[in-house]
Amino acid sequence: MTNDEVNEQYDEAQFLMDGAIEHLAEELSKIRTGKASTAMLKGIMVDYYGSPTPLNQVANVSTADSKTLTIQPWEKSMLAPIEQAIFASNMGLTPQNDGEIIRISIPPLTEERRRDLVKQAKSNGEDAKVSIRQARHKIMDFIKKAVKDGFPEDAGKRKEDEVEKMVKKYGEDVDRIVSGKEKDILTI
Predict the structure, then answer these.
(1) For residue 37, what pLDDT is reported?
(2) Architecture of domain 38-105
(3) How confident is the model at residue 188 (pLDDT cuts 50, 70, 90)?
């Protein structure tokens, strides 16, 4: 085993950990905080002439103010399918259609709902940490195998220490991101 092969696996582990952080950020952006955000509607698919299409590809989604989202479809015929998709998403949002535009008022969150959302955010953070640990496990196994196959033992130890530092950094990133979202959710 060469140093290049070990570095390549290290980079791969880092790529996987970056992916875990990106996925966490995307999942947390979907959690309501009581403020209107276009990211809340990101995963909604609309039936566009028979094929499921992301909402943002059939309409302009924007925030009118901190409590209201507006959806301006590019074709008036899309008003009803957009409404149906929002109801089907089970997000607890009620669209109001005035024949031109759809408005969604974001209701204030109850204390109980806020606690549930914090639990959900923490669960997403835990999932990200599991992904990070899986990437760590994979690279550590590779390094151990490389040492058995003739890679210098001291270089292997140094690489393992680098991996541990990287895992610690990513774990702290997850904690920081989740705690920021938690603060967001609990802020009225």
Answers:
(1) 80
(2) 2-Layer Sandwich (3.30)
(3) low
Given a contact cutoff of 8 angstroms between Cβ atoms, the answer to whether 67 and 54 are in contact is no
Beta strands in the chain (DSSP E): 45-48, 51-54, 59-65, 68-73, 95-97, 102-105
Q: Is 104 in contact with 68 (CB distance < 8 Å)? A: yes
pLDDT at residue 144 greater than cutoff 70: yes
Structural domain spans, the chain: 3-30+110-186, 38-105
Which pTM value belongs to this model? 0.72
Query: Residue 113 and residue 14: Cα distance in Å, rounded?
Result: 35
Q: Name the CATH topology of 3-30+110-186.
A: Topoisomerase I; Chain A, domain 4 (1.10.132)
